[in-house]
Design a protein that fits this description.
The protein has 8 helices and 39 strands. It is an alpha/beta fold. It binds uridine-diphosphate-N-acetylglucosamine and calcium ion (CA).
């Protein structure tokens, strides 16, 4: 049977106490819904249908994709009512997999198992035995152990609340069956909502084959209703990311103190100290060392490159054995050859830096091409912006730029040139020569320091 995945994402998430719609709350820097969409896409279904409502425009904008069909649920009248908004566009011969937009850690493997199970059952639901089942629907079983229904936390008796087997919210059934069951539901319950889990009792009453599959890892089905659960799920996600890094051979100073908000690939003998945050796509070659409290975003670092503490590396390609930081900021478009040294309080943007070049202290280098073996002294600035446009600075191989030099772009410093400290360079400086552009020092004879008048 062809598969349609329906994702429920219309709720406001009152319990989050936030203006942001619940499914846009970030997990590892991306909306919850984006994670659920990833899982849905892994199944390569015939169609994906997202039921949205609260913050509809924002939700659609945050999750682009031509493969998505959007259905509007103007008023949130319950999870079954949400599914009912999708059913009119789903062919009757499709199998429907329902996912919740607030259950983001669900594994594609688990979903494949459920769909496989649906070959021999009319309704398949996913269950989890949780240490604390508060807030979840509880699985009711008859004397023979068969599933007889689901009772919501808000409607459960004290005795039923002791049940720790919970409904994960994931369900698989044929579109035509779902349509019939949902049509038979009432909203006579504590929340006056049409509950999707209520279809289970109807299916059982009809004599349909109902199968419950218990999830292997209960963390997969953690639902997010409030900020505390959001934090729990974030930690669970990050634990798994850290585990992947360790399995790939990285050494983490503390697996609980690294955050991956994207994809990190590591080669052998990478070391990552505490407080590292990775965003976007990051590649760390063999022997890379990341010091404490560094943020690395969308960058590739070559073998044995070291990032010293408190350094921000964003949109950078670095060759082998570079040293960055401490306290450096490397911005998008920075390309470093091998053995480049970028020191403390140095900012680099949109620049190519040749091998062995050193920019060790307190400098700004933007829109520049810097050759090999160049030494840039403390406090050097490429004045690249005239208020309207950005201009290029070019520095040849083995040039030596003294401290405190202003390079007013567009400007070129020739290979082997030396620029005297404190110079303001507004014209090209020739190769292999000393260029000095600063006021001469003068002594004023007989000058007297002003004295304060006695009071
Ligand atoms: C739901 C289940 C509960 C299960 C738990 C698992 C129901 C009635 N209860 O409870 O059995 O244990 O999830 O996490 O299904 N939504 C809509 N439209 C609506 C209502 C909800 O799109 O009218 C969406 C929400 O945005 C959310 C999802 O459906 O993504 C689940 O709704 P939520 O209100 O969080 O249900 P729970 O109380 O967590
Ligand atoms: Ca929920």
């Amino acid at each position: 049977m062809p598969l349609t995945v329906v994702i429920l994402a219309a709720g406001k998430g009152k319990r989050m106490r936030s203006d942001l719609p619940k499914v846009l709350q970030p997990l590892a820097g991306r909306p919850l819904l984006a994670h659920v969409l990833d899982r849905a896409r892994e199944l390569e279904p015939e169609a994906i249908c997202v039921v949205h409502g609260h913050g509809a425009d924002a939700v659609r904008a945050a999750c682009p994709g031509n493969d998505l069909g959007w259905r509007l649920q103007a008023r949130q009248r319950g999870t079954a009512h949400a599914v009912a908004q999708a059913l009119p566009v789903i062919p009757a011969d499709h199998r429907v997999l329902v996912l919740f937009g607030d259950v983001p850690l669900i594994g594609a493997g688990t979903l494949r198992d459920l769909c496989a199970k649906a070959e021999s059952a009319d309704l398949v639901l996913l269950t989890a035995t949780l240490p604390d089942a508060t807030g979840y629907g509880r699985i009711l079983r008859d004397a023979d152990g068969g599933v007889s229904g689901i009772v919501e936390d808000a409607d459960a008796t004290d005795e039923q609340r002791l049940i720790r087997e919970t409904n994960a919210g994931v369900m698989v059934a044929a579109a035509c069956d779902l349509r019939r069951w949902i049509a038979g539901l009432s909203n006579d319950n504590a929340q006056q909502e049409y509950y999707l889990p209520d279809v289970v009792a109807l299916a059982v009453a009809e004599g349909a084959r109902v199968a419950a599959v218990e999830v292997d890892d209960p963390d997969e089905v953690l639902g997010i209703n409030d900020k505390s659960q959001l934090a729990d799920v974030e930690r669970s996600y990050q634990r798994a990311q850290a585990q992947k890094l360790v399995e790939a051979g990285a050494t983490l100073a503390d697996p609980a103190r690294v955050d991956v908000r994207g994809e990190v690939s590591v080669e052998a003998d990478v070391f990552i100290d505490v407080g590292a945050v990775f965003e976007g796509e990051v590649t760390l070659a063999a022997g890379v060392r990341i010091g404490p409290n560094c943020t690395i975003r969308d960058s590739r670092l070559g073998p044995d490159t070291v990032v010293h503490p408190n350094t921000v590396v964003d949109g950078v390609t670095a060759g082998a054995a570079c040293e960055l930081g401490p306290f450096a900021r490397l911005r998008p478009g920075t390309e470093l050859d091998e053995r480049v040294r970028i020191g403390n309080f140095v900012e680099i943007k949109n620049s190519r830096i040749g091998s062995g070049t050193k920019i060790n202290h307190l400098s700004y280098v933007g829109d520049a091409t810097v050759g090999r073996g160049v030494n840039i002294g403390a406090g050097t600035i490429t004045c690249n912006y005239d208020g309207a446009a950005k201009h290029q600075t070019t520095i040849g191989d083995k040039a030596f730029i003294g401290s405190g030099v202003m390079l007013i772009a567009p400007v070129e410093v020739g290979a082997g040139a030396t620029i005297g400290a404190g110079s303001t360079i507004s014209k090209d400086a020739p190769a292999d020569q000393l260029t000095v552009a600063r006021a001469r020092q003068a002594e004023i004879r007989g000058w007297q320091r002003p004295a304060k008048k006695p009071r």
